[in-house]
Design goal:
The structure is a single chain. The protein is mainly α. Helix content is 57%, strand content 0%. It has nine helices and no strands. The longest helix has 25 residues, at 47-71. It starts with a helix and ends in a 12-residue tail after the last helix.
Length: 244
């Protein structure tokens, strides 16, 4: 029952926005979704199963947004690094926006699950070193199955990196692919660092007119600067990001 499943997950997410997960009752979720409690248990088995499915859906939606940001504009423009950097900046900005708006995605990215959130078994907090193929380009990670471990920071950073490489690789000089993989991993880790430690907005100097920047704008600007700086380290990279 795909429609019932989505309705139940929507109801669970809405309930979580209003109260701590421990106080969320299965009967209330079923009622909000317009189905019987038995349908809820048939679909997810238990509250733990519902929590796992909810976390997986939200992280899958986050990764789909990363892919959309990287795909904007079609294949990377031949001869330009600036286009590649802009795509990864867009994916990084999406990551910051989603982490601010969605507490489940933020928890999965950082490994920090507070008392209000479900902490389904298998949610990893460890940021392990990413594996890399012999070419230096990280291997594409298989999509998580419904029963497999839930994605934690290492998996999500790795998926971000892999999607960036896959989006930018067409037309990229073969001899530079290892460097591309490395810079995409760096960009992914820098993005996560901005989620873990949000940028502080500095107070204006005495007598100065304060800049009209919100915290989200400051965070996006900071991650953009960091990602573009990483791409500038590619062989032949420049501040503008153009390739000779």
């Amino acid at each position: 029952m795909p429609a019932a499943r989505e309705s139940l997950l929507d109801a669970a997410y809405t309930a979580l926005a209003n109260r701590a997960w421990a106080a969320v009752r299965m009967v209330d979720i079923a009622a909000a979704a317009g189905v019987s409690r038995q349908t809820l248990y048939n679909e997810f088995g238990s509250k733990e199963g519902l929590a796992r499915a909810l976390v997986r859906r939200e992280t899958d939606n986050y990764l789909a947004g990363v892919a959309r940001a990287l795909a904007r504009g079609g294949a990377p423009a031949a001869g330009t690094r600036g286009d590649a950097a802009a795509r990864v900046v867009a994916a990084a900005a999406w990551t910051l926006r989603t982490a601010r708006a969605n507490p489940l995605v933020r928890a999965a990215l950082t490994g920090c699950w507070d008392d209000r959130l479900p902490t389904p078994s298998g949610a990893s907090a460890e940021l392990a070193p990413l594996r890399a193929a012999r070419s230096g380009v990280p291997a594409q990670r298989a999509a998580s199955s419904g029963e497999g471990p839930l994605p934690g920071p290492a998996e999500l950073v790795g998926r971000f990196c892999d999607q960036a490489v896959a989006a930018l690789e067409p037309g990229w000089p073969e001899e530079e692919l290892p460097a591309l993989g490395s810079v995409c991993e760096t960009a992914a880790r820098l993005t996560l660092s901005c989620v873990v430690a949000p940028v502080a907005v500095a107070a204006p100097e005495p007598g100065c007119v304060p800049a009209q920047r919100t915290r989200p704008e400051a965070e996006t600007e900071a991650v953009s600067r960091l990602v573009r700086g990483a791409f500038a380290q590619l062989p032949g990279g420049t501040e503008s990001g153009d390739r000779d």
